[in-house]
Amino acid sequence: MARALRVLAWAMGLACTAIGLFHVVAGNAAIPGAADAGSTVDSLGRFFGAIFAGYGVAWLWVVRQDPIPALVVRWLTAVFLLGAVGRLLSLAVHGWPHWFQTTLTVIELLLPPLLFLLASADERSFREQERTST
């Protein structure tokens, strides 16, 4: 389980950093269905892209810790889940978004329970190794 946590944390870090940087560089073109949304949405998208890239860097930082701190994984996962809640609120208020956004919402709802389950796996593995080596 510790290996699965490491793989998922690396994937989260790399994907979020890349997606965030793509939004910073591409602006509205990075948002399906929003290419003609105007300068306000472009500015907002680029700003949040930078924040999302920073979020990805936080995942990359956490996965490099030994052991991976469960508390930080839980906080990062909670932020990710909060993003899904925001998408659900948007769905309730404005209706169905572009299909790609719907796909992301599904991922953002399915991945957090797995990450919460795995959050302490590396700490447990670390403690077991310490116990058997002494």
SS-based class: mainly alpha
Amount of beta strand: under 5%
Number of helices: 5
- The count of DSSP E runs of length 2 or more, i.e. the number of strands, is 0
- Cα(first) to Cα(last) distance is 23 Å
Percent of residues in helices: over 70%
Query: How are helices and strands ordered from N to C?
Result: HHHHH
The biggest beta sheet, please? none
Backbone CA Rg: 17 Å
Bulk shape? elongated
Low-confidence stretches: none
Mean pLDDT, all residues:
94
In a nutshell, what does this entry contain?
The chain is mainly alpha-helical and 134 residues long. The chain is 81% helix and 0% strand.
SSE blueprint:
Layout: H1 2-26, H2 39-63, H3 70-94, H4 99-118, H5 121-133
Task: Give a written overview of the molecule.
The protein has 134 residues and is an all-alpha fold. Helix content is 81%, strand content 0%. It contains five helices and no strands. It has helices at 2-26, 39-63, 70-94, 99-118, 121-133. The model has no long low-confidence stretch (mean pLDDT 94).
